[in-house]
Write a structure and sequence with these properties.
185 residues, 21% helix
């Protein structure tokens, strides 16, 4: 089984929200529902200096996905490419997945009453296209790749741990982040 996930270069992200809006518009999501969110976070260093960093987050398609492990019907499940997606026919709208995901990725639709989350645009990928968020990113800070095909050299310098994200040991996210300060000194 492949291990697909997102690579995010924080140093390139300008917080423009193009990825967030491409996802929302491309999936015709109801008002207030986002499957990818761009957050601007104020950080302070040890000298008290402030700086803003941006984070574009969606489902991390975790190896130890709490949403899938705790879904009472099995609707939230791992697909053959390693991504996690809900089966709308099996989902009963109980919300368990929304409570247990430390990243807040699954959302309950007010329209359908069922769980929704990023499936990395599996329909587009089956057509040989990139996920909408990756395609829309004007600074090319998002990529969606099979982690199993990356060399150790390609993985070096990346992390899945940021001070404002949950501990990656909890779910083992398929997310590689090049932190802003790592690239710009």
């Amino acid at each position: 089984m492949a291990t697909y996930g997102f690579i995010y270069d924080q140093s390139r992200c300008i917080g423009c929200n193009a990825c967030q809006m491409a996802c929302k518009d491309g999936h015709d999501l109801e008002p207030g529902l986002f499957l990818r969110r761009v957050e601007s976070i104020e950080l302070t260093d040890e000298k008290g200096n402030f700086r803003t960093v941006h984070y574009s987050g969606a489902c991390n398609h975790c190896s130890s996905a709490l949403c899938a492990a705790n879904c009472p019907t099995g609707a939230m499940h791992k697909q053959s490419d390693g991504t996690i997606a809900p089966d709308p026919e099996m989902c009963i709208g109980c919300g368990t997945c929304t409570w247990v995901c430390p990243y807040g990725a699954p959302k309950l639709s007010r329209v359908t009453g069922r769980s929704m989350k990023c499936d990395a645009c599996i329909d587009r990928r089956q057509e040989g296209k990139e996920p909408l968020c990756v395609e829309a990113c004007i600074t090319h800070c998002l990529k969606f790749v099979d982690f199993d095909t990356l060399s150790e050299e390609e993985k070096s310098g990346y992390t899945s741990a940021l001070s404002f994200l949950p501990d990656p040991d909890m779910t083992k996210p398929h997310l590689m982040i090049l932190k802003k300060e790592d690239k710009n000194g």
